[in-house]
Write a structure and sequence with these properties.
Mean pLDDT: 96
Strand order of the largest sheet: 1-2-3-7
Low-confidence stretches: none
CATH architecture: 2-Layer Sandwich
Strand content: 35-45%
Number of strands: 7
Order of helices and strands: EEEHEEEHE
Number of domains: 1
Shape: globular
CATH superfamily: NE0471-like N-terminal domain
Structural class: mainly beta
Distance between the termini: 23 Å
CATH topology: NE0471 N-terminal domain-like
CATH class: Alpha Beta
Length: 79
């Protein structure tokens, strides 16, 4: 099982900075998901910026979310 998200910060160009329970900080690109119906609302920057940690993962104000395993496995470490 991958570590869970403790905190998230929205960044420019639909990137997220994720803080994981194991101490890692990673960057996740949301752009590839924006064409899916559930994530289209995130094209509105105010909705995108509404992201918050939620039960070990993240969730936006429109209730869209992503699996914590996807967030970890498809993100890049921040050095």
């Amino acid at each position: 099982m991958n570590p869970r998200v403790l905190d998230v910060k929205p960044e420019s160009e639909y990137m997220l900075k994720l803080y994981f329970a194991n101490g890692e900080v990673r960057r996740f690109d949301v752009k590839p998901y924006l064409h899916y119906e559930v994530f289209r609302a995130l094209q509105d920057v105010s909705v995108f910026n509404s992201v918050r940690p939620f039960l070990g993962s993240i969730q936006w104000s429109n209730r869209a979310d992503l699996c914590p395993d996807t967030l970890y496995e498809d993100s890049e470490p921040v050095y």
